[in-house]
Specification:
The chain is an alpha+beta fold. It is built from 31 helices and 24 strands. Strands 1, 2, 3, 4, 5, 6, 7, 8 and 11 form a nine-stranded antiparallel β-sheet that branches. A nine-stranded mixed β-sheet has the order 16-18-15-19-20-14-21-22-23, with helices on both faces. A two-stranded antiparallel ribbon has the order 9-10.
């Protein structure tokens, strides 16, 4: 065998390897010389891949759902409920087709404010997650409904911002408590939005599950960094330890110690051996922080956009939102992405970031420039709508602005917005059925009611203002003194002031205008019973006697009206001669025998003759008191009175009624008026509902009024809504009202208001609000300030703090003090007033006119049997 053969077999592989290396070197050299071709190839591949991914992501985003969450006022979730909602959101983000790119696998929380609502809470995400997200852990406290598409009109000024997490990447955000609501700073930041200026603010938080491979790589990096830091710290500590040890051994003290100990210079005298510290073991939980576990870890993207048609407002709004997000800052914080180059900010509003921002904003893609990893526990404040602990602003959409002369609005007061602007707020008249105002004397209850009544009157509405003390009339008079109201105003004043007092007249038994006999009898008898405390158990005989007497007198009046002689009608004061004067009784019963039912005739024939004279005293006593007072005798003693509340309702009249006081006689008058009002309102059932003209009754000093007619006032708050008559009541103490009245007031009140007062007096009102605000807060209100709960568009608004309207400020343009005297004369003329002495004289002579009329109806010779029967 040739000895050179082994050398040849070894040389061939070496030559091949060398040739391969030379070839590789040549390729690398060519690539280096033509690097731009490689860059173009890589860029082309990346561009093609990105184009495909974007097309797929856009296709996946085209099938998205939207849900809007509307919380109830009592919505108060716990941490576990919020956490479960976060788990639902994270799970729903994966409800996409397998081919969908990761950027499209996200669920978006949209917090939006445009001036129409304080903060709309909306969820958008994959269509496959709708069934999962429609049923929330929040239960019935949150209403979930499909969100309609949101179409924004273009605004002149728009600013955009993207927020990223800065600080220690493993540190969590601040643990914000649920009370007050974590959303409160965001709500406050958008509380002064003005829809009229085109203001808009929207925050979008995208959530998606953290990518596993990226998270693992980040953990490896964090652990390496932690170990490197520990090694550096150990080396630094060893270095300082050696330096300290060397310094000690070189010191004079150390040398003297060695000499004294006899260890210097010997074999044992050298330097001490210094053991360097060993690097501490790095614990993964400590080094990785919130990234240690995969469970409930999500990646987030936070985008914000503010817009307005007014220059500068969008930028200011963005600054407010940035400050609001600072509340969540802890070891990690939300910071706006970008930087400033001198006066020019470079961020999402500038190239090259703006285009990517708008694409992500429009399509809902989650592509944060940084990982932005957070745990669900860190986002509890954003995973739920505003709760009961969130103080929501009052916007124009929540409570309309009052417009003078608009019959559809009812003035409520002056609201001061978060930006300091004051506006007159109102409720819709059709929804304001009953109102209750509570508070101490002089707090502004009556002033607010007067402002409301004056605004309603100038808008063409009809009303009745019942004031036992008459203070409201001179206060309102200058603002009502307009020629447009002169023919609609009527003053029923029983105070009888001045040297020649004039009053109006009213006959509760008047049978004109098609009144129903039994309703008139029932209303009058019930009025007496309510004031005198009669009922079927305590005074059955008195009730029976009065009812039977009224039935006869009403029958006489019906006969007179049918005969065209209303001036010959009887009045309440003819109850006494009917019971005590046998001649008048016989004539009256004979004249109306055909109009009485069989039971009433039988009572007069069989029962009345058996009654002792003493049985009439309890009935005659209140009537005698009324007759002894010239004013009440004149007011109630006219056969054809002018006062007719049913006609006033139907013709939109403005009726001011001042009973004159709160004595026993005054309470009886008030009870008669209240019961007649109840009868008149119920009589509107003869009209179709659409033909019933709205009418408002204002009752000042409810304690006085309900003392006269408690059951009547309670029935008003229960029944009047059906007949489009609405009651507004004012009282100093809710607790002093009779139980039925108080319960009806609170149950049916569309508006419940309270001024300042003692805490014990205010507590029943604040209890209806769930003690929010607390009694001590309401008790500290300034004069004319109120806390009010209102009903607008079928839902309760408030309680909100408003300032009661002061007439001299709000209605200054309506004031006509120079016309007040002439207007009062017109109001008295409309009420048909006459001198008290003249009306009293006429009332005394009414019995003779009635006798003359009855004599024409009754045969001249009265049978003896008939006389014996009715004696």
């Amino acid at each position: 065998m040739d000895p050179a053969a082994p050398h040849l077999t070894l040389a061939a592989p070496l030559d091949d390897l060398l040739g391969l290396l030379v070839g590789l070197v040549d390729v690398v050299g060519w690539l280096l010389a033509h690097w731009y071709l490689l860059a173009l190839l890589v860029a082309g591949c990346w561009g093609l891949a990105e184009w495909v991914v974007r097309r797929l992501a856009r296709k996946a985003s085209a099938e998205r759902m939207a849900l809007e969450l509307v919380p109830a006022r009592h919505f108060d979730p716990g941490l576990e409920e919020i956490f479960r909602r976060g788990v639902q959101l994270a799970r729903a983000s994966t409800s996409m087709p397998w081919w969908a790119p990761r950027r499209a696998k996200a669920v978006q929380i949209r917090l939006r404010a445009d001036g129409s609502s304080p903060l709309r809470y909306r969820i958008e995400g994959p269509a496959g997650g709708e069934r999962l997200l429609s049923i929330t852990p929040f239960g019935p406290a949150v209403t979930v409904k499909k969100g309609p598409p949101v179409a924004d009109k273009p605004r002149k000024h728009v600013v955009r911002a993207e927020f990223i997490l800065r600080g220690k990447p493993t540190a969590p955000l601040r643990d914000v408590p649920l009370d007050p609501d974590p959303l409160q700073p965001l709500v406050d930041a958008v509380s002064d939005l003005r829809a009229g200026l085109g203001d808009l603010a929207e925050l979008r938080l995208d959530l998606q599950r953290a990518p596993k491979w990226t998270l693992r790589a980040r953990r490896v990096q964090l652990m390496s960094d932690a170990r490197r830091r520990e090694r550096r710290e150990a080396q630094r500590a060893a270095r300082w330890l050696r330096q300290d040890a060397g310094g000690v051994e070189d010191s004079l003290g150390w040398q003297l110690q060695q000499l004294i100990g006899g260890k210097s210079g010997g074999s044992g005298g050298g330097r001490r051996l210094v053991m360097p510290p060993v690097p501490r073991r790095v614990e993964p939980a400590e080094a990785l922080g919130k990234l240690a576990d995969d469970d409930h870890l999500v990646r987030v993207q936070l985008l914000v956009m503010c817009a307005s048609d007014t220059e500068g407002r969008a930028e200011a709004r963005l600054a407010q939102l940035q400050a609001a997000l600072d509340v969540f800052g802890g070891g990690s914080r939300w910071a706006m992405r970008g930087w400033h180059l001198g006066p020019w900010p470079l961020g999402a509003d500038r190239w090259p970031s703006r285009r990517g921002f708008e694409r992500r904003w429009e399509l809902g893609h989650c592509q944060p420039p940084r990982p932005n990893w957070v745990r669900l526990e860190e986002l509890t404040g954003l995973l739920k709508p505003p709760t009961a602990h969130c103080r929501l602003p009052l916007l124009a959409g929540d409570l309309p602005t009052f417009e003078f002369g608009n019959p559809g609005l009812l003035l409520q007061g002056i609201h001061r917005g978060p930006d300091g602007r004051r506006r007159l707020v109102a409720t819709y008249a059709a929804e304001t059925l009953f109102e209750v105002g509570v508070g101490k004397a002089g707090g502004g209850k009556t002033e607010r009611a007067l402002a409301q009544a004056i605004g309603w009157a100038h808008a063409g509405g009809g009303l009745m203002f019942l004031d036992p003390h008459r203070d409201s009339w001179p206060r309102a008079l200058p603002f009502l003194a307009h020629t447009t109201l002169a023919d609609r105003i009527a003053l029923i004043d029983l105070g009888a002031h001045g040297p020649a007092p004039q009053i109006s007249s009213w006959n509760p038994l008047d049978m004109r205008h098609g009144r129903v006999a039994h309703e008139v009898v029932e209303a009058t008898a019930d009025a007496f019973a309510s004031v005198l405390g009669w009922d079927d158990a305590t005074a059955p005989r008195a009730l029976t006697i009065l009812t039977a007497a009224l039935a006869v007198l009403v029958a006489v009046n019906a006969t007179a009206c049918q005969a065209g002689r209303p001036e010959d009608q009887t009045t309440l004061f003819h109850v006494r001669p009917l019971l005590t004067d046998s001649a008048f009784r016989i004539t009256a019963l004979a004249g109306v025998e055909g109009r009485l039912d069989e039971e009433t005739r039988a009572w007069w024939q069989a029962v009345f003759p058996t009654l002792p004279v003493e049985a009439f005293a309890v009935v005659l006593n209140p009537i005698t008191r009324l007759a002894a007072n010239p004013v009440t005798r004149a007011f109630l003693g006219q056969p054809a009175g002018v006062y007719n509340i049913r006609a006033a309702m139907d013709s939109r009249m403005i009726v001011w009624v001042c009973p004159g006081g709160n004595g026993p006689t005054d309470r009886l008058i008030t009870a008669l008026l209240a019961r007649d009002l109840l009868r008149a309102v119920r009589s509107r059932r003869d009209l179709p509902e659409a033909s019933r003209v709205p009418f408002r009754a204002y009752f000042d000093e409810l304690i006085t009024l309900t003392g006269a007619a408690p059951e009547t006032i309670a029935s008003m708050f229960e029944d009047f809504r059906k007949y489009r008559v609405h009651v507004h009541g004012m009282t100093q103490l809710l607790a002093r009202l009779p139980g039925p009245v108080r319960l009806s007031l609170v149950q049916n009140a569309s508006t419940l208001a309270s001024t300042a007062g003692s805490q014990s007096a205010i507590a029943p009102v604040t209890a209806e609000w769930g003690d929010e605000p607390a009694p001590h807060v309401v008790a500290a209100l300034d004069r004319f300030d109120h806390y009010v709960s209102l009903t607008v568009k079928g839902r309760r608004v408030g309680p909100v703090k408003i300032t009661g309207p002061h007439l001299d400020d709000v209605f200054a343009h309506y004031a006509r003090p120079d016309h007040a005297e002439a207007f009062e004369r017109a109001a008295r003329t409309t009420a048909g007033t006459a001198l008290v002495d003249e009306l009293t004289t006429r009332a005394r002579g009414q019995l003779g006119r009635v006798n003359a009329f009855l004599a024409q109806l009754t045969p001249t010779a009265t049978p003896d049997s008939q006389e014996k029967t009715y004696k």
